[in-house]
Design a protein that fits this description.
alpha/beta, 6-stranded mixed β-sheet, 4-stranded antiparallel β-sheet, 20 helices, 16 strands, globular
Length: 523
């Protein structure tokens, strides 16, 4: 049911995006909710489908791991409540399903500090009321039908609850997205085929300008040394649209702020940062308006080549986007599925799409996605983010994809990538040069082009040691600081690199990959 619900929501993703009336869109509601559901599907693909506890954990964990934006985080909590209600059941009958929708509603409302009616929460309440109402609930189908009826009734009333909806003449986008999830669940039981995607002719965002806080900032953290309530108190002074939730030992945060770097550095002191996302909402608004203009045109020219890149870390994501790439979230320890890559390729308006896996563990999934696209995609086999950056710099949408692939592979080969992270376990490793490294869990380790070459010391010392052994007159050294690094850290390291290698141009950016102290490229 949830797999079909993911695809069902995917059909209507752009329609839900078009309903979003946040003055500056929080990502895209439909896209964010769909990404959340895709993450659930990934976890379901690896769980024990014959064990309800395993299925429930996959739903809860997958939703939290993939939650994006306000709507995605709230959806993750609705799914968490639903999963908790079925975790100990041998099967889901009509009564269990009804109680699960009620548990979902309570979890959703409980996740928001100041619940607002006229949003996805209102529709979740309608779905729960319908599922538990005074009607024939002998079958799962009848529960879903009643849930959809009452959910739709409240969704239709949302413009009377929120002035922004009434001004734009639309219903709530998150509520509509949630109803599509429930519709997909019913469609799975009935064996209904996926509908055709509706044509989008207008976007509600055209009526709105800007808001006070410019950056949608999110984080996923494990091993937190503070309770969720304390983390919430830590981040609340930074902005608004605040959500801090948890499940399966993880903490997920979402906030609109003007100080994303300071926020992430503050939170990062109290746990292990696994994922971060920072979106410039004014840029998103411009992008949405561009989409609206494109929708108004009768015909859209299709470029010869498109680009899909796997990346994490908001600075890197922003860079790849500026070079024309559609992003698949993922990388080390968070490999995207074949379906994630296929979905991204299908969303690009181009005759043929080049895929940058940017990680050796993603390469196989990218190649499988290429096979499934039957000639519409080609893979540039980038094994590091540095190679991906080099390849993306050579991308030209007006060029032939096959010719581009060769040029992009050559550009990728000219980049040396250094990564500084922490050891996940205690071990002894002998490098290719024959040096034995004694590594303790938590030690700083350095990788050159994905091969372990250094261990111990500070992250900054790791960078300098690897550069010292590899520098041979290259012109540009670029440093990306991870989510726990501040601008002061970057400035100090850049000055140190510039002093050691005065003939190289040094660039430094925040928003490096999750789980890394530094990503450094040299070309």
């Amino acid at each position: 049911m949830l797999r079909v619900a993911t695809d069902w929501l995917g059909v209507y993703r752009e329609q839900v995006n078009a309903l979003n009336v946040y003055p500056v869109p929080d990502g895209d509601t439909g896209t964010n909710m769909h990404l959340t559901m895709q993450s659930v599907r990934r976890e379901l693909d690896t769980c024990d489908e014959h064990n309800m506890a395993s299925v429930a954990r996959a739903i809860s964990y997958g939703a939290l791991l993939g939650a994006r934006g306000n709507s995605g985080v709230i959806l993750s909590q609705l799914l968490k409540g639903f999963a908790e209600a079925v975790r100990d059941r041998a099967e889901v009958d009509a009564d269990t399903l009804a109680r699960a929708f009620r548990a979902a509603q309570k979890a959703g409302y409980g996740a928001v500090m100041k619940p607002v009616e006229g949003t996805i929460l209102t529709v979740a309440r309608g779905v729960a009321d319908g599922a538990n109402g005074p009607h024939d609930r002998d079958t799962v189908d009848s529960v879903l039908e009643a849930a959809l009826f009452e959910g739709q009734r409240l969704l239709d009333q949302t413009p009377e609850m929120l002035p922004a909806l009434k001004q734009a003449g639309v219903i709530d986008s998150g509520g509509q997205g949630y109803l599509y999830v429930v519709q997909g669940m019913l469609a799975a039981l009935r064996g209904d085929a996926l509908p055709e995607a509706p044509e989008i002719t207008s976007y509600a965002q055209e009526q709105f300008e800007t808001e006070e806080f410019g950056y949608c900032t999110e984080f996923l953290m494990s091993d937190s040394t503070k309770a969720i309530e304390e983390i919430r108190s830590l981040v609340s002074p930074f902005g608004d649209s605040l959500l801090v939730v948890g499940a399966e030992g993880y903490v997920k945060g979402h906030i609109h702020t003007n100080e994303p770097d300071a926020l992430l550095a503050t939170v990062g002191r109290y746990g292990r940062m696994l994922k971060t996302k920072v979106e410039d909402m004014s840029e998103q608004h411009t992008e949405i308006l561009g989409m609206a203009g494109a929708a108004a045109r009768a015909e859209e020219e299709v470029a010869p080549s498109g680009l899909v890149a796997v990346a994490s870390g908001y600075g890197l994501v922003k860079l790849f986007r500026s070079l024309g790439a559609r992003i698949v979230s993922g990388g080390q320890t968070a490999n995207p599925s074949v379906q994630d890559i296929v979905d991204a390729v299908r969303s690009v308006s181009a005759e043929k799409v080049l895929i940058l896996p940017n990680n050796k563990n993603v390469l196989m999934a990218a190649e499988k996605a290429m096979e499934l696209m039957e000639g519409r995609a080609v893979v540039v086999p980038t094994r590091t983010l540095g190679q991906g950056i080099g390849a993306a710099l050579a991308f030209q949408p007006d060029a032939d994809a096959e010719e581009l692939r060769a040029a992009m592979e050559q550009a990728a080969a000219r980049v040396t990538t250094f990564e500084v992270t922490r050891a996940s376990r205690t071990t002894n490793i002998t490098t290719k040069e024959g040096v034995t490294l004694d590594i303790a869990e938590g030690d700083v380790i350095g990788l050159k082009d994905d091969e372990l070459v250094q261990a111990g010391g500070s992250p900054e010392e790791s960078v300098m040691e690897m550069l010292g052994k590899s520098y041979a007159g290259q012109e540009i050294i670029t440093v990306f600081g991870g989510p726990q690094k501040t601008q002061e850290d970057l400035d100090a390291l850049s000055e140190r690199i510039g002093g050691e290698f005065p003939s190289a141009e040094v660039e430094a950016h925040l928003g490096g990959p999750d789980l890394y102290d530094y990503l450094v490229t040299m070309e």
